Structures are given as structure tokens and as C-alpha cells.
């Protein structure tokens, strides 16, 4: 898989990785028991969401052995014989379990250096028989645990916006949940390709589990910042939908994954958003939260349906802002 547009690898005037900067690391210890510690964490989450759009969390309550086994389970699937994996191969995204290479294979000019096993979990989880036997147990357990973590993060994010702690959850922030379980093979010529091109997420929030290989980078102040793996940590990032409903108080930033000589690299991106992929969900209208608007802070975005947002996103490619068409013209 060769990346045909070298300008997208170097991104023109964007500086290459700055190892002196790092995304915020937030310790969630005490958020359920100590009001003072919780207030401190809320401030850190707010600051990270405003200035970076990315942060890592530790002491989140999920046992490390669950995270390790999830990485191993996804690796086991991808390293099975091709005949076994082929049983799950489909480009039909209405399926609950999807195995494929490059979701946008027939839209983009180039392919990405990865394969993906996807589980579309909420609002209707896969049947037990649909799950690959080599990872079915751990995927069930991991999903239960990461959904509980998302619930806690939504509360912290709500408080960071000055809202009631349940506001974002009551909006349906976990109405749609799916996992993208990526497998990046070792690459002999990583300078000629890309693991995942630069993009922002079509999510409310994304919770990412990554193994020890590395390669994830975040665009911050016009330079690429490495996000080094921390064993037992999750990477959390703000998606486009949360930037929209927060009226730009929280920011969704572009990120990418470099191809590496080392590997395979395994990551699990759990995507949480307010709109599911049913017909009703696609027509659901979202817009800035009324409680965040005032004369001094007017609405930046018009209301839009999730279908309209996704239509624009798919038509224009990952590297182009998916929110700019929905900004109000008089701002």
C-alpha cells in the first residue's frame, strides 16, 4: 500500500514532530470519592479539551490485564489464517462485525497501511455467534468496562463545560458505540506510506487503547506531537460532534498514525457519539447546547443532521475540516 501524495505526509508548512511537547496526562484517582480531587480533575480535563483536544488518562478503574488481553485478542484475530479471517470480510457496514482493509478504499486516492476489525455495539450489540471465537470473551468484557469509563468521562466533560454532570450523557452521548480494532503490519518502507492519514474524528469522544509500538501523532500549534504509549493508559480525544455542540469550547484536532518498521502495531479506537446509524439516528439534528450560548457567546454553528455532516465528510475526505460548512456566515 503506497501513499500517493507525499505532501500529505509532510503537510507543507507543518513542522515535523516536536518531542519536547506532550499531551496532558490526567490521573483519575479519587474522582468518585473526593470532591476536591474531582474538581482538580475537571479543571485538567477542561484545559486539555480546550487547548489540545487530546489527553491520556491513568488510574481509570479498568484492570490492566483487561487492556493487555484486548490487545492480544485483536492480534490473535489478525494473525489467523487468511481463510479464517475471510469469513468476517465484508464492506457491508450494516453488519455488526466487519473485517476489511481501508473503509474509504474506493473513495481515497491512496490506501492506508492497516487492516481493521470493527464491532458495532450500541444501540444493538452483536449476537454471541457473530463474534470471532479468538477474541469474543475479551471484547465483551472490554466493551462493558470502556463504556463505564466513557460514562465517567462524559460527567467530567459536562462539568468542564459548566453544565450539570449528566448533561452530555442525557443528550445520548453513548447512543452509538463501536470499536475500530486496527492492525498495522511492519512496513519495510514507512516513508512511502502512512498508517492512517491526518483526520479528525466523527465522534463525540474517542477512547483509544494502543500497544507499545507508537506512531500516533497529534497536530498542535501547527506541529506534529508524538503521543507515546503509556502501559495501562487510554488516549481520549474530542471529536467533531462535541466541538460542534460545545460551540468551539472544546476542540477536535487532526491526528495521524505513521507506518513503522516495527510491528505489528495494535490499537482499539472506541467511538462514542450521539447519533446511531439507523435512519432515525442519521436524521437526528444536533447543534450548539443552548446553555452555552449568550449574547457574548452566540452560536457559531447552525443546526445540522448527522446525515448532512457525514455526507460532507465522506465527499471531501478525511483531511478537510468537516465542521466548516456548518459555521454561520455572519461570524
Question: What are its keywords?
Answer:
eight-stranded mixed β-sheet, globular, disordered N terminus, oxidoreductase, 9 helices, metal-binding, DIOX_N, 331 residues
What structural class results from the helix and strand content?
A: alpha+beta
The first-level CATH class is given as Mainly Beta
Mean pLDDT: 89
Give the ordered list of helices and strands.
HEHEHHEEHHEEEEEEHEEHEEH
Number of strands: 14
Layout of secondary structure:
Elements: H1 6-10, E1 25-27, H2 35-51, E2 54-58, H3 64-78, H4 82-86, E3 97-100, E4 115-122, H5 136-160, H6 167-170, E5 176-184, E6 196-199, E7 205-210, E8 216-220, E9 223-226, E10 234-238, H7 240-245, E11 255-257, E12 265-273, H8 279-283, E13 285-286, E14 304-305, H9 306-316
Parallel strand pairs: 1-2
Antiparallel strand pairs: 2-10, 3-4, 4-5, 5-12, 6-11, 7-10, 7-12, 8-9, 8-11, 13-14
Cofactor: Fe cation
GO molecular function: dioxygenase activity; metal ion binding
Protein name: Fe2OG dioxygenase domain-containing protein
Description:
With 331 residues, this protein is an alpha+beta fold. The chain has a single domain, classed as B-lactam Antibiotic, Isopenicillin N Synthase, Chain (Jelly Rolls, Sandwich). It is built from nine helices and 14 strands. It has helices spanning 6-10, 35-51, 64-78, 82-86, 136-160, 167-170, 240-245, 279-283, 306-316, and strands spanning 25-27, 54-58, 97-100, 115-122, 176-184, 196-199, 205-210, 216-220, 223-226, 234-238, 255-257, 265-273, 285-286, 304-305. Strands 1-2-10-7-12-5-4-3 form an eight-stranded mixed beta sheet. The protein has a four-stranded antiparallel beta sheet with strand order 6-11-8-9, with no helix packed on it. Helix 2 (35-51) packs across helix 5 and helix 3 (64-78) packs across helix 5. The longest helix has 25 residues, at 136-160. It is globular. The relative contact order is 0.17.
